[in-house]
Specification:
The structure is a single chain. The protein is of the alpha/beta class. The protein folds into two domains: 3-149, Rossmann fold (3-Layer(aba) Sandwich); 150-312, Lactate dehydrogenase/glycoside hydrolase, family 4, C-terminal (L-2-Hydroxyisocaproate Dehydrogenase, Chain A, domain 2), CATH 3.90.110.10. It is 42% helix and 21% strand. It contains nine helices and 14 strands. The chain has helices at 11-22, 38-53, 97-114, 127-138, 149-165, 205-216, 218-226, 232-246, 291-313, and strands spanning 3-7, 28-33, 58-63, 78-81, 119-122, 145-147, 172-173, 176-178, 185-187, 193-194, 197-198, 251-260, 266-277, 280-284. β2, α2 (38-53) and β3 form a beta-alpha-beta unit. Bound molecules: adenosine-5-diphosphoribose. The site of adenosine-5-diphosphoribose has 29 residues, from α1, β2 and α3.
Length: 319
C-alpha cells in the first residue's frame, strides 16, 4: 500500500495525479486544493476515466483551507507541492516568490502534521527557493526534501536533443543541473549521449549550444505559446520523481537538494544528480564538470542564493 498526496489541483497538480493513476504508481492518490470543489471534481473526472484507462488507484479529492482539512491525506508516503501561482508570459519564475512562499510554507506544514514521515517533492516556483524554504521551515532531514526541477529540465533537454538529431528520445540521455531558471540551468552537453555515444559525435558545437539554449527557455517558450506555464512535462516529471521514491527504483535524477559542500556549494538547494529511492535522496552523485560547466553552476548558485535572500526579507524565514 502506498499513498501520495498532491497539493494544488491546477494544471500541474492534476496532471501529476493523472500520471500517477495511469501508471499505477501508488495505491491511493489524494489531490488537495483550496478552491472549493476543484479537487473533488478533477478526481471524479479521473475516476470516470478509470474504466477506459484500466487503472485501479484509489482517487480522493479534498478541499482544505487549514490543517484540519488535511486529515484525508494522513499517512502519505510522499507529498507533492504544486500549489501557488504559475507565471504569465514575460514573467520569470523568481517573480512568483512573494505569493508562493506563503502558500508553500503553509501547505507543507499542514500536510506534515498528518504525514510526519512523508517525503516532500516541491514543484512550485521558484522551485530551488521553495525547496530551500520547505527544508528550512520544517527542519526535516535533507533526504526528505526534493525539488523536482532538474527532472523536468532534463526531460526538456532530451526532447530538444531528439528534435536536433532525429533520434528517438528513448535512445537519448542527458542531464540538466544547476538552477531551475531560464538563465541558471546548466545543460550538460558534454555528457549527453545517444545510445551511449557522446552527443558531440552527432551534433556540432553550435548545434549543441542551440539545444542547450532551447532547453533553458523550454518553459518560457510554452508560456509564450499557452499564455500560462506548462503542465504535461512538469506534472509528468513530478510523477517520475514520485515513482522513483515509492517504487524504490534508485533512478539517478537531477533534483534540487541541499548541498553541504558537494559541488563546492553549501546552504543552498540546487540541481545535482541524485539517487532516488524509498528514503528520498539516497545519494548525491558526483560527476566531473568541465571548467565552463562549473563556472555556470557557481553562477547559478549565486543567483539562487540572491533569490533565497528574499525569503528573509519577506519574513517567510526568520533572519
Ligand atoms: N492550498 C491548496 N491549494 C492552493 C493554495 C493553498 N494554500 N493556494 C493556491 N492553491 C491552488 C490553486 O487554487 C490552484 O488550483 O494551486 C493551484 C495552482 O494551479 P494553477 O494555477 O493551474 O498553476 P499550475 O500551472 O498548476 O502551476 C503550479 O507549479 O510549475 C509550477 O510555476 C508553477 O508555481 C506554479 C505551480
Amino acid at each position: 500500500m502506498s499513498k501520495v498526496t498532491v497539493i494544488g489541483a491546477g494544471a500541474v497538480g492534476a496532471t501529476c495525479a493523472n500520471v500517477l493513476a495511469c501508471r499505477g504508481v501508488a495505491s491511493e492518490v489524494v489531490l488537495v486544493d483550496i478552491k472549493d470543489g476543484l479537487s473533488e471534481g478533477k478526481m471524479l473526472d479521473m475516476f470516470q476515466a478509470a474504466a477506459t484507462q484500466g487503472y485501479k488507484t484509489k482517487l480522493v479529492g479534498v478541499t482544505a483551507t487549514d490543517a484540519e482539512g488535511y486529515k484525508p491525506t494522513a499517512n502519505s508516503d510522499v507529498i507533492v507541492v504544486t500549489s501557488g501561482i504559475p507565471r504569465k508570459p514575460g514573467m520569470t519564475r523568481e517573480e512568483l516568490i512573494g505569493i508562493n512562499a506563503g502558500i508553500v510554507k503553509g501547505v507543507v506544514g499542514n500536510a506534515l502534521k498528518w504525514s510526519p514521515k512523508a517525503i516532500v517533492v516541491v514543484i512550485s516556483n521558484p522551485m530551488d527557493t521553495m525547496t530551500y524554504l520547505a527544508l528550512k521551515a520544517t527542519g526535516l532531514k535533507k533526504n526528505r526534501i526534493i525539488g523536482m526541477g532538474g527532472a523536468l529540465d532534463s526531460s526538456r533537454f532530451r526532447c530538444y536533443l531528439s528534435k536536433a538529431t532525429g533520434v528517438g528520445i528513448q535512445d537519448i540521455d542527458g542531464m540538466v543541473i544547476g538552477g531551475h531558471g531560464d538563465t541558471t540551468m546548466v545543460p550538460l552537453t558534454s555528457k549527453a549521449t545517444i545510445k551511449g555515444v557522446p552527443a558531440t559525435q552527432f551534433l556540432s558545437k553550435k548545434k549543441l549550444e542551440q539545444v542547450a539554449a532551447d532547453t533553458m527557455v523550454g518553459g518560457a517558450t510554452l508560456t509564450g505559446l499557452l499564455g500560462t506555464s506548462a503542465w504535461y512535462a512538469p506534472g509528468s516529471a513530478g510523477a517520475y520523481v514520485v515513482d522513483a521514491i515509492i517504487n524504490d527504483t534508485k533512478a539517478i535524477v537531477p533534483c534540487s537538494v541541499l548541498l553541504e559542500g558537494e559541488y563546492g556549494q553549501e546552504d543552498i538547494c540546487l540541481g545535482v544528480p541524485v539517487v532516488l529511492g524509498k528514503k528520498g535522496v539516497e545519494k548525491i552523485v558526483k560527476v566531473d564538470l568541465t571548467k565552463e560547466e562549473k563556472a555556470k553552476f557557481d553562477a547559478a548558485a549565486d543567483a539562487v542564493r540572491k533569490v533565497n535572500g528574499a525569503l528573509y526579507e519577506i519574513g517567510a524565514l526568520a533572519k
